[in-house]
Amino acid sequence: MSTVKVNHKARKRAKATDKVATVLIVTFAMAIVAILIGLLGFILFRGLGHISWSFLTAVPQTMRAGGGIGPQLFNSLFLLFLTMLITVPLGLGAGIYMSEYAKPGKLTNFIRLVVEVLSSFPSIVIGLFGLLLIVNTFNLGFSLLSGALALTIFNLPLMVRITEQAFAGVPKEQKEAGLALGLSKWKIITSIMLPVAIPSLITGTILASGRVFGEAAALLFTAGMSTPPLDFSNWNPLSPRSPINPLRPAETLAVYIWKVNSEGIAPDATQIAAGASAVLVIMVLIFNLLARLLGRTLYRYMTASRRMN
Fold this sequence. Notes:
By secondary structure, the chain is mainly alpha-helical. Helices cover 74% and strands 0% of the residues. The chain has twelve helices and no strands. α5 packs across α6 (144-168) and α7 (172-180) runs antiparallel to α8 (185-214). The longest helix has 46 residues, at 2-47.
């Protein structure tokens, strides 16, 4: 009889503990959501009223009111394209090597340690490194390519780590089934493991892309703080006024927001900074939604789930 009472009390304590833990977890989750909504709401409330087609396409003004963010917005998108064009293949290749080809040992552990250390570097250090090596030593100057290479160094550890974890999370049974069918290792990676890892890879790409949109410190020393007058009818990549010239200086939207807030002298500098911040947040949200939609589409296309619906 006493044993039954003890068990009953233990169950009551377990239920009470579970309820308390559930309340705490839900509270923390709601607090995080509230903070995010508060930040987004504050930025959008201050900036949405200043956004117009003219604001998105016009060139900035230093002394007069009414400037826009056209070149800076284009620079951010083009820099994102260049950075991901370099980061994604390198990150995928290195992550696949670490997950499927690297043998356990001191060398592999050392490579993982290097990746972890590199991922913890402050962006300002990456920027100074890019200034010394890419801008000065390689003589690329302040340019989009210099900024893309610096951001590749900044984002590569994240991409490698997420790729390795995504492939390591594929069930062993699927790999063993491929081996039983006589498939080569590369065929197993591309046909069996890659479709399963696509959602995690898309998440990693989104995280890396968000860092490109919001990064300013590393780009101050590599991409520069100015943009030459651009001729959007000139698509010759070797022309200094061409928007797609990767060797021209390029002030991104995040750098422009910092510069306007710190040293802007235009009468409407505060409004310009607020509008540019809202545009930056909206671009990140749109990119996240589109990337997730693309990830789901690719996953359904590359797996049997599209044939089951």
